[in-house]
Amino acid sequence: MDTANIERYLNSFGKEVVSNAKKNLQSAGKGGGKLEKSIKFEVVPDSDGFSVKFYMADYGTFVDKGVKGAGGTIKSGDHKGTWGGRRHYITWRGKRKDSPYKFGSGKGSGSIYKGIGSFIKRKGLQPRSKGGQYMTTLGLKIAIVKVLWTKGIHGISFFQKSLMLGMQDYGKDLLSNVKEDILNNLITVN
Prior knowledge:
Elements: H1 4-27, H2 34-38, E1 40-46, E2 49-55, H3 60-65, E3 67-68, E4 72-74, E5 81-83, E6 88-90, E7 96-98, H4 113-122, H5 138-151, E8 152-153, H6 158-171, H7 174-185
Antiparallel strand pairs: 1-2, 3-8, 4-5, 6-7
């Protein structure tokens, strides 16, 4: 059976979702890095016809859906106060949901400290002495981790929004592509 129209349609859908996800990351100030470069898709034949599979770096789901904090009190600084740690994201169906991830749940790939050092350097936050020499980042790492652990990380729904737009834009045209493939496969019998 010829399925060229459906495959072409699904490839267009995948390209649009990936393109919008990358634009969403950029507009949120998180573009240009490994996560943006990792976002890809492929159309795969399966038992039901075809599937569109999307791929991204593992931590992309944390950026998309956020991470709940443990809650608690921060006694000083810009984030002073008591925090519940609740974080949410907007699903591709437009519904607000609590993040499925939480600091300290044991489901992550490692310590929160791993990426903080490179974040500090990348953002130019590494402390310097009066003479301009770089100082240790240990105190700053501890402060950042305390805030993240307590408050959590708000999800930016960069992929969810992209998928929602893709479903809205492409959903209405699916049947016409199926119809065209069916008509192209009809065999007339005399």
